[in-house]
Amino acid sequence: MDLPLFYFLVLGFCIFMYVCLDGFDLGIGILYPWFDKPGERDHLMLSISHVWDGNETWLVMGGALLYGIFPAAYAGLLSILYIPLMLMLFSLIFRGVAFEYRFKSDRSRPYWDFAFSAGSAVAAFCQGLVLGTIVQGIPEGSEAMSSLHWITPFTIFTGFAVMAGYAMLAACYLYMKSRGVIQAHAAKLAKVLLIMVMIAMAVVSIWTVLTQPEIKARWFSDSHFLFLAPLPIFCAIAAFVSWKDLHNHRHESRPFWCGILLFLLGLAGLVVSVFPYLIPRQLTLWQAASPTTSLQFLLPGVCIFIPVICIYTLWGYRVFAGKVEDYQEGY
């Protein structure tokens, strides 16, 4: 068995689970300013009160895997992306504190609302900065260490694109979990955000192909595009189905799952573009991997705990399935 490749797939699975699950609850915070009528923000908080902290399990698991399995990539990425990653972590902490204290506050509740919304937005934006930095490539040696290479027009654009993507997921989630006025408002927001996400995916794809010769060759040399064409085609189909089913009460969950599919296809496109590199054009997954004895030692833990996390995550969502009722005690 090729253990580095196996762990690479496991790491990709953890990233996908985090982006999908924590993505929509970060998106709830991003959407906060657009829900300001009495009771609406309480409803938004109730919709994720049972899952928000469990969703972040996947961030911890992904970070631990990167540290233990690919230490060279962990050291290289953290040294370059230290500022955005620390901003993201502080934002997540600030957001979590705001979530806890909001339910116990009265006069100070508007401040905690702002903290929750700002923490969600900053965390999502920083994740977009990290994504953009990896896609655009990282200079080798001291040049990367001494410059703010993670702040460029491209990374700033991907930062806002990730915010839009998370907000779209959140709007589709609210459409699935809500009724009445909130559901209708979520549907309107989801349509606007879906257009923004599709435009962002197209811009990032074109920008990358025009500025990265290696990625352009990966997609368009020989007959590669014939085999890779299903990725953008399925993106367009998923977006069309999601748009069509918003306001269709017979399929209220379908827009959310189509949003998940868009993120899966985007991750697949990223893997196609950069594989086998963890740090583009510098460090492959085999070069970054720990010694074989370390990979073998960690294998039982990964094979036990990943399924356990999946089981209790699925069980938690199953227990709290259905519409959010505002009369529930909640948190």
TrEMBL record:
Regions annotated as coiled coil: none
First-listed, main subcellular location of the protein, grouped into a coarse class: membrane
Cellular component aspect of the GO annotation: cytochrome complex; plasma membrane
GO biological process: aerobic electron transport chain
Membrane topology of the entry: Multi-pass membrane protein
Any one GO molecular function term: electron transfer activity
Keyword Kinase: no
Transmembrane as UniProt keyword: yes
Pfam family, one: Cyt_bd_oxida_II
Alphabetical list of InterPro entries matching this protein: Cyt-d_oxidase_su2
Compartment(s): Cell membrane
Transmembrane segments: 6-35, 80-99, 111-138, 150-176, 188-210, 225-243, 255-277, 297-315
Keywords, ordered alphabetically: Cell membrane, Membrane, Transmembrane, Transmembrane helix
NCBIfam families on file: cydB
Entry-linked PANTHER family: CYTOCHROME BD2 SUBUNIT II
Family: Belongs to the cytochrome ubiquinol oxidase subunit 2 family.
Protein's name according to its UniProt entry: Cytochrome bd-I ubiquinol oxidase subunit 2 apoprotein
Organism: Marinomonas pollencensis
